[in-house]
Amino acid sequence: MIETRQITKRYGSFTAVDAISFKVEPGQVLGFLGPNGAGKSTTMKMVAGFLAPTSGSASVAGYDVQTHPLEAKRALGYLPEGAPSYGEMAVREFLGFIADVRGLRGEQRYQRIDDAVGRLHLERVLEQPIDTLSKGFKRRVGLAGAILHDPKVLILDEPTDGLDPNQKQEVRTLINSMARDKTIIISTHLLEEVHAVCSRAIIIAAGRILADATPAELEARSRYHQAVSLTATNLQQAKEALARVADIAAIEVDPQDNRITAFPKPGRAIFAAVGDALKAQGVVVRELALEAGRLDEVFRTITQGAAGQEART
Ligand code: ADP
Questions:
Q1: Whose CA is nearest to atom 10 of ligand 1?
Q2: Among residues of the chain, what percentage have pLDDT more than 90?
Q3: What's the pTM value of the predicted model, to 2 decimals?
Q4: 38 CB under 6 A from ligand 1?
Q5: Position 310 pLDDT exceeds 60
Q6: Domain parsing of the chain, residue ranges
Q7: Which of 19, 110, 151, 178 is surrounded by the most beta carbons within 10 Å?
Q8: 31 C-alpha to center of ligand 1: Å?
Q9: Per CATH, is 228-291 categorized as 3.30.70.100?
Q10: Max Cα-Cα span within the chain
């Protein structure tokens, strides 16, 4: 449904997006992750046909966005970063305008607007000029515009930016509900969002793809993958018990809350053995958890090689 081939954007001698190739299949929600200035927005703009690549190409629903822009855009809803243009328009007027541009007529026009307004909870701001809305409402108006013609492909640049935690949750639920019959790319710098909505994540930095994997595969690269963390009433006693578990490679104690993290030797599972050792020593355990892995640590490890990024932005 979405494909890029060696897509590249240069500004003078500066390469913002460097030969990025990927495919997204129906039903997938692809998360675009990367530090500020990584090239996420630039890539999305090129896929959405709003920015011409310097070289390479992108297609949506089988149509090249440069050579068949009308067909590609018909299949596509795009939420650009920031607030919608036409800020002086009231929300109802704006959605009506988008519906006209999208060629919606009659009963279908009415129904689609009604559906988008309902999904994004815009009922009480319909008569308000977009410029006068809060950042969260502006974002929701933009999203309503993007989904208005019920496109097969959605490209959403930071869809939850500016929303409060409840609104973030609502938009994530909306994205999940649409994921069944659409192909979606979202960009985010929020790792929790990757967990919440993405079936796959591409990490980019300095315009290049550094990782392309499922969230679980990324977590498996974490140092914390399969580690066991615990808190106990008696720290020393707990450490002594852990010292008896042969498959533990290392132990760390967080000085803030005395939380112990035990790291397994490569390929070993230690959860059961840790539980047994603590019990055998009579340690009173307050919390005991098996770690899936920490995406923030994986993200840092993968992107820190692209140092100098800040200086370039
Ligand atoms: P992200 O969305 O990951 O934060 P962007 O795609 O917005 O990153 O930007 C990628 C890089 O391209 C940044 O270093 C940015 O400063 C640069 N850039 C973006 N647009 C332009 C432009 N019109 N002219 C020059 N440089 C640009």
A1: 39
A2: 77
A3: 0.85
A4: yes
A5: no
A6: 2-219, 228-291
A7: 151
A8: 18
A9: yes
A10: 75
Average pLDDT, the chain: 92
Closest atom of ligand 1 to 312 CA is: 14
Q: Is 11 in the pocket of ligand 1 (CB under 6 A)?
A: yes
Tokens of 249: 């490679």
Q: Which pLDDT does position 204 carry in this prediction? A: 94
Report how far apart, in Å, the C-alpha atoms of 54 and of each of 11, 24, 42 are.
9, 22, 12
Decide whether any atom of ligand 1 lies within 6 Å of the 42 Cβ: yes
pLDDT band at 311 (very low <50, low <70, confident <90, very high): very low
Domain 2-219 fold: Rossmann fold (3.40.50)
Distances (CA, A) of 97 to 12, 128, 143, 231: 36, 15, 15, 58
Q: What is the pLDDT of residue 306?
A: 58
**Residues pairing with 31 in the sheet:** 186, 201
DSSP string, 27-74: T-EEEEE--TTSSHHHHHHHHTTSS--SEEEEEETTEETTTSHHHHHH
Backbone angles phi, psi at 184, to 5 degrees: -130, 135
Q: How far is CA 245 from CA 231, 251, 289, in A?
A: 17, 11, 16
The string of pLDDT tens digits covering residues 133-169 is: 988 889 899 999 999 999 999 999 999 988 889 889 9
